[in-house]
Amino acid sequence: MRIAIAGGHGKIARLLERQLADAGHQAVAIIRNADQTADIEAEGAEALVLDLEQTDADTLAAALNGVDAVVFAAGAGPGSGAKRKLTIDRDGAILLADAAERAGIRRYVLVSAIATDDFDSEAAQRVDSDSDDDVSQVYLRAKSEADAAVRERDLDWTIVRPGGLTDEPGTGLVTLAISTGRSSIPRADVAAIVATSLVEGVGIRQQFEAISGGDTVSDALATLRY
Ligand code: NAP
Fold it and tell me: Which atom of ligand 1 is found nearest the CA of 77?
């Protein structure tokens, strides 16, 4: 498969690119800084330089020619301020869905976040606020709105909502459920969930939270029940 990954230089994305390359697939990392190309190529992926906050759906769709599936793993990241939670975490994910539809790509995996629907609706409107609490509420709102927009699409979507991310080595053992309760998960295991979902064609039109647990990734995805 040829799989384009938005936020291609991110921590989960790079782990995913390596896992896909090792499994014989071709990842295309969408990055906004051409200086990151060597890092991407070291993971066995190709770089596609495009700033998701400075492009449009037609341009992105044209760049996705020949791609079989897309993954959204971008994010404004810590310290970015509230406005970019909306322009990248929400609008970037929706732009990728628009582009996928225009390019005729059905498969879309979205990396979201645990408990993202539980935001304070008043605080989540304060996009000009510098308060960490307000920014985190805008972040949750951005993820929640992106998920809702993608769920409405006639796409083969999967929405993965990980708990707190760590850089510990992956264990390959997870718990996946509509609601898992708060806990953490290594980024490598999130990458494995995304890769397995793509390669095995499972988890389609399903949204679930993901934390470390006791099931193999394949078993956990195969036994998701809604
Ligand atoms: P990360 O390392 O922060 O990577 C995010 C990537 O998005 C960066 O490489 C960044 O590129 C890229 N990006 C930002 N704006 C962009 C734009 N306009 N165009 C193209 N790329 C852009 O993220 P991660 O740690 O792998 O996490 C992935 C996702 O999981 C994020 O959406 C995050 O919100 C979510 N999540 C996080 C937690 C947590 O505990 N931290 C929990 C659950 C879910 P630059 O290098 O150019 O900035």
Answer: 3
182 by Cβ neighbours in 10 Å (0-12 / 13-18 / 19+) ranks as exposed
What global pTM score does this model have? 0.98
Q: Which residues contact 54 (CB under 8 A, 6 or more apart)?
A: 32
Question: 3-state DSSP call for residue 135?
Answer: helix
Tell me the CA–centroid distance for residue 89 and ligand 1, in Å: 8
- Measuring CA to CA, how many Å separate 198 from each of 2, 4, 16, 25, 218? 10, 12, 11, 10, 11
Where do the domains of the chain lie, and which CATH numbers do they carry? 2-222 (3.40.50.720)
> How far apart, in whole angstroms, are the C-alpha atoms of residue 6 and residue 167?
20
Distance between CA atoms of residues 118 and 112, nearest Å: 13
Known catalytic residue: 108?
Answer: no
Q: Which atom of ligand 1 is nearest to the CA of 162?
A: 43
- The model's pLDDT over 130-180, given as tens digits with 9 standing for 90+, comes to 999 999 999 999 999 999 999 999 999 999 999 999 999 999 999 999 999
Inter-helix orientation angle 11-22/187-200, to 10°: 50
